[in-house]
Request: fold
Amino acid sequence: MTETRDDTDVVDLLTTDHHDVLSMLQEIRISTDPGRRRELADVVIGELVRHSVAEEMFVYPAMRRHLPGGDEAVEHDVAEHKELERLMKRWEGVEPSDADFDVVLDELEPVLRDHVQDEESEQFPELRAHIPRQELVHLAGQVEAAKRAAPTRPHPLAPNNALFHFLVGPGVGLVDRLRDSWTGRPNQS
Ligand SMILES: [Fe+2]
Ligand SMILES: [Fe+2]
Reply:
């Protein structure tokens, strides 16, 4: 039976993503194996980029349409995604043996926690209050599909909007995945 999966709404899906990424950050903190730390950081980067792109393509437009003050909330959230992308771009190029690896982790984690807190305590409950459940379940499917095609690497200089990602994103995602497979970098799709 696929009932449980079909019934997942976009809030459950995105909340699970948040918690998966935050628990990987904790694992990076306690791990002493440089290879494992690099691998986990790469998975975090890939997951977070795909999560952010999918939110910006499908969830933030719904926030703009349905939430009181939605435009301001989206602008704030998009600016935080950009900040996270900028930090992840730096993180991508730093070896775990370099002290800067932990410096970037220490900068990234509070930005992410703050962002997750805003979404989970304010915007997600508002989405559930203003959008019929059936539509939230439909949005979950759109987010899952977007994550499969989205870039897996940060592109902080690229425009972060739906038009860019519809037109160019699948190509960028394809190039990212080719680079991932050439370099043996893990990604989860
Ligand atoms: Fe999120
Ligand atoms: Fe977000």
